[in-house]
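Record format v2
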Amino acid sequence: MNKKLTKALSSLPLNLVIIGISLIWLLPSIGLLISSFRPASDVLSSGWWVTFQHPFDFTQYTLGNYADVITAQGMGRAFLNSLYITVPSTIIPIMVAAFAAYAFAWMEFPGRQVIFMIVVGLLVVPLQMTLIPILRVYNQLGLAGTFLGIWLAHTGYGLPFAVYLLRNFFGGLPKDLFESAFLDGASYLTAFFRLALPLSVPAIASLAIFQFLWVWNDLLVALIYLGGTERVAPLTLRLSSLVNSLGQNWHLLTAAAFVSMALPLVVFFSLQRYFVRGILAGSVKG
Amino acid sequence: MRKGGLLPWLYIGPTLLILAFFLVYPALNTVYLSLFDKRSENFVGLDNYVWTLTSKEMLTAFRNNVLWLVLFTALTVSLGLIFAVLLDRVRYEPVAKSIIFLPMAISFVGAGVIWKFMYAFRPANVPQIGLLNAILQNFTNLDPIGWLVNKTTNNLALIVVGIWIWTGFCMVILSAAYKGIPKELIEAARVDGANEWQIFWRMTLPMMKPTIAVVATTMVINVLKVFDVVYVMTNGAFGTEVIANRMYKEMFHYRSFGRASAIAVILLLAIIPVMLVNIRRFREQEAIR
């Protein structure tokens, strides 16, 4: 008993430090969440921590801020736009990249290594290097301010990393498997759909989550190619313009911010393993 | 592997076409445009580069990016390392890790709103609604601070947001490397009488050096391109400008495509060496795994 007590006491400082750090990291988000449920008059007259004095007094909370931002402030529309932008911007690059990665891994053709190196080398190009020329072409083709334009742009920006990741994964699959399949007369396409893709589900899942979050949370690409067109603006764009137009209306801004975070948070909590893997793998992306 | 003839080109064709259009052509075109004036009509030589490297606005941006580079990189990496080592010792490690990693899930715009609210400022005689100024008001004699307006605090205030977002990322990677260190080695050192401090500095740190380098270079690349947080929180006002935000302004507010292109090229030149180091390190690690 005594031993247990001394052990607990000696690890007390460590536990206090860790709990302190966790609280510091959590508090900003908690402040946002609580404020988003408080009526305007409360948010503007007292700090959100005041609710802790009687946390279960539910009369101090309201859903009104959410109703307002989703309808009047356009966050509902923006949520749908974000979905409409993100889903194709995740699927298209992964499909295109999977075919290329498969060829780089299992087909023979002149310049295979060199072309692969060039594709991966394009990871160094920062987005900023591409914005002006593409925007000009988009303006001429009428693609600026359209969903198609932004799907294609995200496809272009996502490809080098997707090809790199999938090529490494495909290349790591057992060689015998493909060779015996080819010997048995399987075509490249059959081996792609029957072997390469099914065996790569974990890698594709991580990649998909990374690309999904990258597009969902992206501001710059949307700002450049969709900027100014309210009708197609995703959450990040709408939220950043609300920051300017709502000023000190914190009850609305906090609710709007939380709307923009809801889906990534669900993905984070439900698919945490793939999520972490995806983020880690994606860290080399330019 | 067998010869594919034309077939492989069908598989890689779409990728090559898209990359040519979205990355190769624009990158080359941007270099070309950087030698022309505002509307890309007259050749101006290196004028845009002279402006980029000498104008007051750009020098402020460079200064701030250097400030970010030093503080953000040092703090994200060292906090990530400290958290990785500390959390390894408690049973609720997964929960604490999730909490610190959580900000990686949300957008920088969302994080910007969260922290703008943390930094909210009101005059000294009314109750504060921002947590930081409320702490000042209730626990110190200091006047509330306009964190994002005051020139001595605003850059630091923005960097803190970056640290809040990225420390979890550093922690997760460094934690994986830390758990990869053979426990017998550390036990042996303990038996030989080394204290935790010595073990950390003489064993843990040297063994984690390669991973620390990868994480640090990744953070450096983030810093060079930092945009969203600054755009949302201050838009570069009161001396908080950074390179990427300035480029956006030149492009959209001043319609000066020559200058914006020159800034982009400078950004690329700054990123290339870091990225090369990173890719090389990354491949070395892959080889070890």
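Chain B touches chain A through 92 residues (CB under 8 Å).
The radius of gyration of chain B is 24 Å.
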